[in-house]
Amino acid sequence: MAKISFGNPIEPMGPYYSEVDLNDQPMSPQSLAILEKLIEEAEGSLACELKEDGFRCQVHVDGQDIKLFTRGSGEFEVRCFPEIVRGLQELGLEKTIIDGELRGSVGKYDGFKAMQARARYAGRINEKALREYLQKKPQEFPVQLVAFDVLMSRGVPQIQETNETRRALLEEVLGEDEIIVPVSRTIAETPQEIIWLYAQKVQKEKCEGIVLKQPQLEYFPSDKKHWVKLKKFEPLDLVVLGLSHGKSPHEYSQALVGSYYPERDVYQSLGFVNLIRENPATGNLFADDIGSIVGKKRRTPPQNVEVRTKSPDIYVNPAVILEVQAMNIDRGNDFACSVDDKTFYSLRIAYVRGIREDKKAEQATTTDFVAAYCKNQR
After folding, report:
1. pLDDT tens digits for 344-359?
2. Is 127 in a helix, a strand, or coil?
3. Which of 288, 370, 368, 265 has the alpha carbon at shortest distance from 324?
4. CB 123 within 8 Å of CB 80
5. Where in the chain are all domains bearing CATH 3.30.470.30?
6. pTM as predicted
7. DSSP code per residue over 27-64
8. What is the pLDDT of residues 259-274, one digit of tens each?
9. End-to-end CA, the chain
10. Whether the predicted pLDDT of 378 surpasses 60
11. Which CATH superfamily does the domain covering 234-376 fall into?
Protein backbone atom coordinates (compact mmCIF):
# COMPACT_ATOMS: atom_id res chain seq x y z
CA MET A 1 0.00 0.00 0.00
CA ALA A 2 1.28 3.47 -0.88
CA LYS A 3 2.14 5.69 2.07
CA ILE A 4 0.26 8.96 2.35
CA SER A 5 0.60 11.76 4.87
CA PHE A 6 -1.65 14.63 5.80
CA GLY A 7 -0.53 18.02 4.49
CA ASN A 8 1.41 16.57 1.57
CA PRO A 9 -0.30 16.26 -1.84
CA ILE A 10 -0.92 12.73 -3.08
CA GLU A 11 -0.44 11.93 -6.75
CA PRO A 12 -4.10 11.53 -7.79
CA MET A 13 -5.68 8.48 -9.30
CA GLY A 14 -7.08 9.39 -12.67
CA PRO A 15 -9.18 8.02 -15.52
CA TYR A 16 -8.05 7.00 -18.95
CA TYR A 17 -10.14 7.75 -22.02
CA SER A 18 -11.85 4.68 -23.42
CA GLU A 19 -12.42 4.09 -27.13
CA VAL A 20 -16.05 3.35 -26.30
CA ASP A 21 -18.10 5.72 -28.45
CA LEU A 22 -21.59 5.99 -27.01
CA ASN A 23 -22.62 8.44 -29.70
CA ASP A 24 -22.82 5.64 -32.26
CA GLN A 25 -26.35 4.71 -33.31
CA PRO A 26 -26.70 1.78 -33.38
CA MET A 27 -24.01 0.94 -30.83
CA SER A 28 -20.95 -0.65 -32.41
CA PRO A 29 -20.06 -4.25 -31.44
CA GLN A 30 -16.62 -3.00 -30.31
CA SER A 31 -18.12 -0.50 -27.85
CA LEU A 32 -20.54 -3.06 -26.44
CA ALA A 33 -17.75 -5.62 -26.03
CA ILE A 34 -15.57 -3.13 -24.11
CA LEU A 35 -18.42 -2.23 -21.73
CA GLU A 36 -19.24 -5.89 -21.14
CA LYS A 37 -15.60 -6.62 -20.31
CA LEU A 38 -15.41 -3.67 -17.90
CA ILE A 39 -18.51 -4.88 -16.06
CA GLU A 40 -17.13 -8.42 -15.90
CA GLU A 41 -13.80 -7.18 -14.48
CA ALA A 42 -15.76 -5.21 -11.86
CA GLU A 43 -17.53 -8.40 -10.70
CA GLY A 44 -20.87 -7.48 -12.21
CA SER A 45 -21.41 -3.76 -11.58
CA LEU A 46 -19.80 -0.38 -12.19
CA ALA A 47 -20.17 2.91 -10.36
CA CYS A 48 -20.98 5.63 -12.91
CA GLU A 49 -20.02 9.13 -11.73
CA LEU A 50 -20.90 12.27 -13.66
CA LYS A 51 -17.99 14.40 -14.86
CA GLU A 52 -18.59 18.11 -15.29
CA ASP A 53 -15.55 20.12 -16.20
CA GLY A 54 -13.60 21.92 -13.53
CA PHE A 55 -10.21 21.85 -11.84
CA ARG A 56 -9.08 18.69 -10.02
CA CYS A 57 -8.57 19.55 -6.36
CA GLN A 58 -7.25 17.56 -3.40
CA VAL A 59 -8.46 19.01 -0.12
CA HIS A 60 -6.59 18.62 3.18
CA VAL A 61 -8.79 19.66 6.13
CA ASP A 62 -7.93 19.80 9.81
CA GLY A 63 -10.48 21.91 11.66
CA GLN A 64 -9.94 25.49 10.50
CA ASP A 65 -6.76 24.66 8.57
CA ILE A 66 -7.48 24.16 4.85
CA LYS A 67 -5.16 23.39 1.95
CA LEU A 68 -6.32 23.04 -1.66
CA PHE A 69 -3.79 21.21 -3.83
CA THR A 70 -4.08 21.22 -7.60
CA ARG A 71 -2.86 18.73 -10.15
CA GLY A 72 0.27 20.06 -11.80
CA SER A 73 0.11 23.66 -10.53
CA GLY A 74 0.89 23.26 -6.83
CA GLU A 75 -1.60 24.83 -4.45
CA PHE A 76 -4.57 27.15 -4.75
CA GLU A 77 -4.56 30.41 -2.81
CA VAL A 78 -7.30 29.46 -0.34
CA ARG A 79 -8.34 33.11 0.19
CA CYS A 80 -9.60 33.08 -3.40
CA PHE A 81 -12.24 30.51 -2.43
CA PRO A 82 -13.85 31.86 0.77
CA GLU A 83 -17.10 29.93 0.35
CA ILE A 84 -15.24 26.65 -0.13
CA VAL A 85 -13.03 27.28 2.89
CA ARG A 86 -16.04 28.25 5.01
CA GLY A 87 -17.98 25.18 3.93
CA LEU A 88 -15.08 22.86 4.74
CA GLN A 89 -14.48 24.46 8.11
CA GLU A 90 -18.14 24.02 9.05
CA LEU A 91 -17.85 20.25 8.50
CA GLY A 92 -15.64 19.96 11.59
CA LEU A 93 -13.25 17.44 10.05
CA GLU A 94 -9.95 16.32 11.56
CA LYS A 95 -6.99 15.43 9.33
CA THR A 96 -9.18 14.46 6.40
CA ILE A 97 -8.16 14.31 2.73
CA ILE A 98 -10.87 14.61 0.09
CA ASP A 99 -10.39 14.12 -3.64
CA GLY A 100 -12.67 16.12 -5.88
CA GLU A 101 -13.12 18.87 -8.40
CA LEU A 102 -13.68 22.60 -8.09
CA ARG A 103 -16.23 23.79 -10.61
CA GLY A 104 -18.51 26.71 -11.22
CA SER A 105 -21.80 26.08 -9.48
CA VAL A 106 -23.62 26.51 -12.79
CA GLY A 107 -21.85 23.39 -14.11
CA LYS A 108 -21.15 22.44 -17.74
CA TYR A 109 -18.62 24.52 -19.70
CA ASP A 110 -19.77 27.73 -18.01
CA GLY A 111 -18.59 26.13 -14.79
CA PHE A 112 -15.15 25.58 -16.27
CA LYS A 113 -14.96 29.20 -17.39
CA ALA A 114 -15.92 30.26 -13.86
CA MET A 115 -13.01 28.26 -12.48
CA GLN A 116 -10.66 29.80 -15.01
CA ALA A 117 -11.70 33.20 -13.72
CA ARG A 118 -11.38 32.17 -10.06
CA ALA A 119 -8.18 30.10 -10.08
CA ARG A 120 -5.23 31.81 -8.43
CA TYR A 121 -2.27 29.96 -6.99
CA ALA A 122 -0.44 30.28 -3.69
CA GLY A 123 2.55 32.60 -3.96
CA ARG A 124 1.52 33.94 -7.37
CA ILE A 125 -0.79 36.80 -6.37
CA ASN A 126 0.14 39.94 -4.42
CA GLU A 127 -1.98 41.38 -1.65
CA LYS A 128 -3.25 44.35 -3.69
CA ALA A 129 -4.35 42.09 -6.54
CA LEU A 130 -5.95 39.74 -4.03
CA ARG A 131 -8.03 42.53 -2.47
CA GLU A 132 -9.26 43.63 -5.90
CA TYR A 133 -9.99 40.03 -6.83
CA LEU A 134 -12.07 39.40 -3.70
CA GLN A 135 -14.23 42.46 -4.37
CA LYS A 136 -15.89 40.86 -7.39
CA LYS A 137 -14.76 37.35 -8.44
CA PRO A 138 -16.49 35.27 -5.71
CA GLN A 139 -19.79 37.04 -6.37
CA GLU A 140 -19.54 36.90 -10.16
CA PHE A 141 -18.36 33.29 -10.39
CA PRO A 142 -19.72 31.11 -7.54
CA VAL A 143 -18.10 27.69 -7.23
CA GLN A 144 -18.68 24.29 -5.66
CA LEU A 145 -16.41 21.49 -4.54
CA VAL A 146 -17.73 18.27 -6.06
CA ALA A 147 -16.17 15.50 -3.95
CA PHE A 148 -15.78 11.92 -5.13
CA ASP A 149 -13.37 10.25 -2.71
CA VAL A 150 -11.98 10.22 0.83
CA LEU A 151 -8.30 9.32 1.07
CA MET A 152 -7.85 9.94 4.80
CA SER A 153 -10.22 10.39 7.73
CA ARG A 154 -9.17 11.49 11.23
CA GLY A 155 -5.57 10.84 10.28
CA VAL A 156 -6.23 7.26 9.17
CA PRO A 157 -5.50 6.43 5.48
CA GLN A 158 -8.53 5.07 3.60
CA ILE A 159 -6.97 4.28 0.23
CA GLN A 160 -6.80 0.56 1.00
CA GLU A 161 -10.59 0.46 1.52
CA THR A 162 -12.92 -0.30 -1.38
CA ASN A 163 -14.38 2.47 -3.51
CA GLU A 164 -17.81 1.51 -2.19
CA THR A 165 -16.66 1.89 1.42
CA ARG A 166 -14.98 5.21 0.71
CA ARG A 167 -18.15 6.47 -0.96
CA ALA A 168 -20.20 5.67 2.15
CA LEU A 169 -17.62 7.49 4.28
CA LEU A 170 -17.71 10.48 1.92
CA GLU A 171 -21.48 10.81 2.29
CA GLU A 172 -21.09 10.58 6.05
CA VAL A 173 -18.47 13.34 6.36
CA LEU A 174 -20.10 15.75 3.90
CA GLY A 175 -23.58 15.89 5.36
CA GLU A 176 -26.02 18.03 3.35
CA ASP A 177 -23.89 21.05 2.52
CA GLU A 178 -24.76 22.85 -0.76
CA ILE A 179 -21.23 24.12 -1.45
CA ILE A 180 -19.36 20.89 -0.73
CA VAL A 181 -21.35 18.19 -2.54
CA PRO A 182 -20.81 14.52 -3.43
CA VAL A 183 -20.58 13.65 -7.11
CA SER A 184 -23.73 12.19 -8.67
CA ARG A 185 -23.33 8.39 -8.73
CA THR A 186 -25.31 5.51 -10.26
CA ILE A 187 -24.61 1.77 -10.14
CA ALA A 188 -24.95 0.00 -13.51
CA GLU A 189 -24.98 -3.74 -14.15
CA THR A 190 -25.45 -3.79 -17.94
CA PRO A 191 -24.06 -1.86 -20.93
CA GLN A 192 -27.59 -0.69 -21.67
CA GLU A 193 -27.81 1.09 -18.31
CA ILE A 194 -24.54 2.91 -19.01
CA ILE A 195 -25.70 3.81 -22.53
CA TRP A 196 -29.00 5.20 -21.17
CA LEU A 197 -27.21 7.25 -18.49
CA TYR A 198 -24.80 8.62 -21.10
CA ALA A 199 -27.68 9.59 -23.40
CA GLN A 200 -29.46 11.43 -20.59
CA LYS A 201 -26.52 13.19 -18.94
CA VAL A 202 -23.95 13.73 -21.69
CA GLN A 203 -25.96 13.95 -24.90
CA LYS A 204 -29.11 15.57 -23.52
CA GLU A 205 -27.97 17.53 -20.45
CA LYS A 206 -24.49 18.29 -21.88
CA CYS A 207 -22.40 17.04 -18.96
CA GLU A 208 -18.76 16.50 -19.94
CA GLY A 209 -18.72 12.74 -19.50
CA ILE A 210 -19.04 9.73 -17.19
CA VAL A 211 -16.31 8.05 -15.15
CA LEU A 212 -16.67 4.31 -14.53
CA LYS A 213 -15.21 2.89 -11.31
CA GLN A 214 -15.08 -0.59 -9.83
CA PRO A 215 -16.94 -0.53 -6.48
CA GLN A 216 -14.51 -3.04 -4.93
CA LEU A 217 -11.33 -1.27 -6.04
CA GLU A 218 -8.80 0.41 -3.75
CA TYR A 219 -7.45 3.91 -4.44
CA PHE A 220 -4.12 3.65 -6.27
CA PRO A 221 -2.21 6.97 -6.22
CA SER A 222 -0.96 7.99 -9.69
CA ASP A 223 -2.80 5.06 -11.35
CA LYS A 224 -4.27 5.77 -14.80
CA LYS A 225 -5.41 2.25 -15.70
CA HIS A 226 -8.53 1.49 -13.66
CA TRP A 227 -10.95 4.41 -13.80
CA VAL A 228 -12.51 4.78 -17.25
CA LYS A 229 -13.78 8.05 -18.72
CA LEU A 230 -16.48 8.07 -21.38
CA LYS A 231 -16.74 11.29 -23.34
CA LYS A 232 -18.23 12.52 -26.58
CA PHE A 233 -16.15 11.93 -29.70
CA GLU A 234 -15.88 14.68 -32.31
CA PRO A 235 -16.09 13.63 -35.99
CA LEU A 236 -13.21 14.96 -38.10
CA ASP A 237 -12.51 14.47 -41.79
CA LEU A 238 -8.71 14.16 -42.01
CA VAL A 239 -6.38 13.59 -44.94
CA VAL A 240 -3.97 10.64 -45.06
CA LEU A 241 -0.46 12.12 -45.28
CA GLY A 242 1.61 9.00 -44.70
CA LEU A 243 1.72 5.41 -43.50
CA SER A 244 3.74 3.58 -40.82
CA HIS A 245 4.44 -0.05 -40.03
CA GLY A 246 3.50 -0.08 -36.36
CA LYS A 247 3.56 -3.42 -34.54
CA SER A 248 1.13 -5.28 -36.79
CA PRO A 249 2.13 -7.95 -39.35
CA HIS A 250 0.38 -5.79 -41.95
CA GLU A 251 2.71 -3.76 -44.13
CA TYR A 252 1.22 -0.48 -42.88
CA SER A 253 -0.96 -0.46 -39.78
CA GLN A 254 -1.04 3.26 -38.96
CA ALA A 255 -1.85 6.39 -40.92
CA LEU A 256 -0.53 9.88 -40.30
CA VAL A 257 -3.53 12.17 -40.79
CA GLY A 258 -3.83 15.90 -41.00
CA SER A 259 -6.02 18.97 -41.41
CA TYR A 260 -6.18 21.43 -44.29
CA TYR A 261 -4.94 25.00 -43.82
CA PRO A 262 -6.53 26.89 -46.74
CA GLU A 263 -4.77 30.20 -45.99
CA ARG A 264 -1.48 28.58 -47.01
CA ASP A 265 -2.92 25.73 -49.12
CA VAL A 266 -1.08 23.10 -47.06
CA TYR A 267 -1.96 19.96 -45.12
CA GLN A 268 -0.66 19.82 -41.55
CA SER A 269 -0.04 16.62 -39.58
CA LEU A 270 -2.32 16.11 -36.57
CA GLY A 271 -1.60 12.57 -35.40
CA PHE A 272 -1.56 8.83 -36.10
CA VAL A 273 -4.60 6.56 -36.21
CA ASN A 274 -4.71 2.77 -36.10
CA LEU A 275 -5.78 1.06 -39.34
CA ILE A 276 -6.20 -2.43 -37.85
CA ARG A 277 -9.95 -2.02 -37.58
CA GLU A 278 -12.70 -3.40 -39.78
CA ASN A 279 -14.11 -1.11 -42.42
CA PRO A 280 -17.89 -1.64 -42.08
CA ALA A 281 -18.40 -0.65 -45.72
CA THR A 282 -16.25 -3.48 -47.09
CA GLY A 283 -15.58 -5.97 -44.31
CA ASN A 284 -11.83 -5.52 -44.86
CA LEU A 285 -9.35 -3.94 -42.51
CA PHE A 286 -8.81 -0.24 -43.14
CA ALA A 287 -5.12 -1.09 -43.60
CA ASP A 288 -5.96 -3.22 -46.64
CA ASP A 289 -8.46 -0.77 -48.16
CA ILE A 290 -6.27 2.29 -47.72
CA GLY A 291 -3.18 0.45 -48.90
CA SER A 292 -4.93 -0.26 -52.20
CA ILE A 293 -6.05 3.32 -52.92
CA VAL A 294 -3.35 5.70 -51.64
CA GLY A 295 -1.32 5.53 -54.83
CA LYS A 296 2.39 6.29 -55.17
CA LYS A 297 4.43 6.24 -51.98
CA ARG A 298 7.17 8.77 -51.24
CA ARG A 299 10.22 9.00 -48.97
CA THR A 300 9.92 12.75 -48.49
CA PRO A 301 6.79 14.81 -47.84
CA PRO A 302 5.08 16.54 -50.78
CA GLN A 303 5.59 20.30 -50.92
CA ASN A 304 2.07 20.93 -49.63
CA VAL A 305 2.47 18.70 -46.53
CA GLU A 306 3.87 19.96 -43.22
CA VAL A 307 5.12 17.64 -40.44
CA ARG A 308 7.22 18.15 -37.32
CA THR A 309 9.03 15.66 -35.09
CA LYS A 310 6.75 12.67 -35.65
CA SER A 311 6.85 11.50 -39.25
CA PRO A 312 5.55 8.37 -41.02
CA ASP A 313 7.64 5.61 -42.58
CA ILE A 314 6.45 6.69 -46.02
CA TYR A 315 4.52 9.70 -47.34
CA VAL A 316 1.63 9.79 -49.81
CA ASN A 317 0.09 12.59 -51.80
CA PRO A 318 -2.87 14.00 -49.84
CA ALA A 319 -5.96 12.61 -51.52
CA VAL A 320 -7.71 10.10 -49.23
CA ILE A 321 -9.94 11.42 -46.45
CA LEU A 322 -10.73 9.35 -43.37
CA GLU A 323 -13.66 10.00 -41.05
CA VAL A 324 -11.93 10.03 -37.67
CA GLN A 325 -13.69 10.11 -34.32
CA ALA A 326 -11.56 11.99 -31.76
CA MET A 327 -12.21 12.31 -28.04
CA ASN A 328 -9.74 15.12 -27.53
CA ILE A 329 -7.47 17.56 -29.29
CA ASP A 330 -4.38 18.25 -27.20
CA ARG A 331 -1.67 20.85 -27.39
CA GLY A 332 1.81 19.60 -28.22
CA ASN A 333 4.78 20.13 -30.50
CA ASP A 334 5.03 16.73 -32.21
CA PHE A 335 2.68 17.55 -35.08
CA ALA A 336 2.51 20.51 -37.45
CA CYS A 337 -1.15 21.51 -37.03
CA SER A 338 -1.09 25.22 -36.09
CA VAL A 339 -2.63 28.51 -37.16
CA ASP A 340 0.15 30.69 -35.76
CA ASP A 341 3.28 28.48 -35.60
CA LYS A 342 3.23 28.93 -31.82
CA THR A 343 0.47 26.64 -30.56
CA PHE A 344 0.36 23.15 -32.07
CA TYR A 345 -2.35 20.50 -31.86
CA SER A 346 -2.53 16.71 -31.86
CA LEU A 347 -5.14 13.96 -31.70
CA ARG A 348 -5.79 12.16 -28.45
CA ILE A 349 -7.83 8.95 -28.39
CA ALA A 350 -8.98 8.70 -31.99
CA TYR A 351 -10.09 5.94 -34.32
CA VAL A 352 -11.07 5.56 -37.97
CA ARG A 353 -14.76 5.22 -38.65
CA GLY A 354 -14.83 5.28 -42.43
CA ILE A 355 -13.29 6.37 -45.73
CA ARG A 356 -14.87 9.51 -47.20
CA GLU A 357 -14.70 8.68 -50.89
CA ASP A 358 -17.25 11.43 -51.51
CA LYS A 359 -14.86 14.18 -50.44
CA LYS A 360 -11.80 15.76 -51.97
CA ALA A 361 -8.70 16.52 -49.91
CA GLU A 362 -9.39 20.26 -49.79
CA GLN A 363 -12.73 19.51 -48.12
CA ALA A 364 -10.97 18.13 -45.06
CA THR A 365 -11.44 19.56 -41.56
CA THR A 366 -9.54 22.84 -41.41
CA THR A 367 -6.78 23.78 -39.00
CA ASP A 368 -8.91 26.73 -37.85
CA PHE A 369 -11.64 24.29 -36.83
CA VAL A 370 -9.13 22.13 -34.93
CA ALA A 371 -7.83 25.16 -33.03
CA ALA A 372 -11.35 26.34 -32.15
CA TYR A 373 -12.38 22.84 -31.08
CA CYS A 374 -9.36 22.50 -28.81
CA LYS A 375 -10.27 25.79 -27.13
CA ASN A 376 -13.94 24.95 -26.65
CA GLN A 377 -13.94 21.17 -26.22
CA ARG A 378 -14.37 21.35 -22.44
Report:
1. 999 988 989 899 988 8
2. helix
3. 370
4. no
5. 15-231
6. 0.75
7. PPHHHHHHHHHHHHHTTT-EEEEEE---EEEEEEEETT
8. 999 999 999 999 999 9
9. 34
10. no
11. Nucleic acid-binding proteins (2.40.50.140)
